[in-house]
Amino acid sequence: MALTQDDLDRYRRDGFVVQEDLFTADEVDLLCDALTEDARTPGPQVVTESDGRTLRAVYASHLRHPVFHRLARTERLLGPARQIAGDELYVHQMKVNVKQSFAGERWAWHQDYIVWRDADGMPAPSQVNVALLLDDCTEFNGPVIFLRGSHTLGTLERDRVTAGDGTGHIDPDRYALSPRELSDVVERHEMVAPKAGRGSVLFFSPQMVHGSNTNVSPHPRRLLILTYNPVPQAPRPAGEPRPEYLVGRARNALEIDRGLLKHA
Amino acid sequence: MALTQDDLDRYRRDGFVVQEDLFTADEVDLLCDALTEDARTPGPQVVTESDGRTLRAVYASHLRHPVFHRLARTERLLGPARQIAGDELYVHQMKVNVKQSFAGERWAWHQDYIVWRDADGMPAPSQVNVALLLDDCTEFNGPVIFLRGSHTLGTLERDRVTAGDGTGHIDPDRYALSPRELSDVVERHEMVAPKAGRGSVLFFSPQMVHGSNTNVSPHPRRLLILTYNPVPQAPRPAGEPRPEYLVGRARNALEIDRGLLKHA
Questions:
Q1: Does Plastid show up as a keyword for this record (chains A, B) (predicted)?
Q2: What is the ipTM of this complex?
C-alpha cells in the first residue's frame, strides 16, 4: 500500500500519482451510501449547481459521519500522504464534488494553494490532495484534468480575492487562470486526465494547475477529495477564520485507524 | 481513397467510419485561410456563441468561396459519400462549427434527420454527413461524441419544433434527447469520440445520436460538415422553405472535380 520510490519520484516530477483499486467495490458502495446520508444534513456545507437544486458538493463529512471519520485515518490514504509530506498530518479540508450526470458543471483551471493562502493564511504549499474516485472515471463524465508538471511553476499570482457571500465559499472561477496564461502553461505542461475505476485514488499537489469539463454522460462523477496539511504548517489567518467545514480546526496529528471502514 | 467493403460494413453497423489524413497540412491551411476570409461576410449565415461575439459557426461557404465550392466536389469526399448513399448527390447543407479555445460551448445530444424532416420536409434519412477535421481532435477540445450504432434506432420522435427567430436556425437544444432517453440509449450504444489529426474525415449517419462537450483547451476545434443528399430525395417543404444557406437549392447531381483545391 505504501508508495514506492518510483511513485514518489513520479509525484515530484508530474505533481500527481495514481494508485488504482485501493478500495473495494463494497467499500465504495459504503462511502456512497454514507454520502447520501450526510448530504441530507442541511447547511452551507451542502453546495448546489447554478440551478439551485442539483447537488454539486458536500464539505467536511468527516466531521459528521463515522465512515468518513475513519476514511480520513485509513492507512491507504494517510500513509502515502505522510510519505509525500514527510510530516505528521491533519485534515485541512474534505469535500465530495458530485458532478451529476448531464448536470455537473465544469471547474475552471486553477491552483488550490493560492486560495488557501489568501483566504486562510496558509503559510506554505505543503498540503497533499487525495482524490478518491467514487465512480468510474471516463473521458465523458468530466474527469479531473491535470497540467502535468505545472506544480513546479510555483504560485501563479493573480488579483487577491476574498470570500464575500457569507458562507466562506470561494468560487474557483475567481481564481481561474486567464486563457493567455493557460495557453502558455499548456505549451510546456500537457493536459492529462487520468482514467481509472471507482476505488482508485489520485494523489496530487496543491500547486497543480487543474480543471475539469462538464459531465455530458448519464453517469455521475463523484470525487472525494481529502486535503491533508502538515501539523507544523497550520494557517494563520489575518482576521476571522473561515468556517470549520472549509478550514479544519482539529490540528493534532492524525493516527492511523487500522479498523474496517464499516465497524461491526 | 474509395471506401473498402470493410469500411462500408462498419458504417452500416456503427453509423460512422473514420478516414485518417485524407487532406494534407497545406490543404487544411488553405481551408482555414478560406474560412477566415468567408467568415468576414456579414449575414445570418455567421453564428456567434451566447456571448454574441465569439464565432460559433459559418454556413454555406461553398456558395460563396471557390475553395469550398471545389471541396464539396472533391473525389475524396464525394466519392465515399456516393458509395454510402448509392446515388447521385447534391449539397443539402455545409457548415463549419468553430468551437473556439476556452469558449466553444457544447452541442446537445441530438439526431440530425428529425430536424430536417420537421423543418424542411426532408422525405427520408438518406443524407451522408462528412465531417472534415480542420484541427487535431483530442479528448480536451470538444470532440464529436457518437453513440455507436444508435442510427439503427431510427428517428427518436419528440415534440415538433419550428424555427421562430426569423433566421431559420434551429437550436439543437430544442431537439435534444432527454436525460432519461439518453440513459436508455447509452445502455446499448456506447459513447465513442473518435480522435484524429487535422485533415482526417468522419463519415456519419444523419440518424446517429451525437453531441459534444465544451472546449476546455487552448486549441480550437474547427469541424467542417458537408451534408450530401440524394438527388431524388429533395425536401418538399409544407410552406416557405428555410433560407438557402441552411437548405441547399442547387439540386443537380454534383460532378467530381479532379482539380486541386487551390487553383493556379
A1: no
A2: 0.86
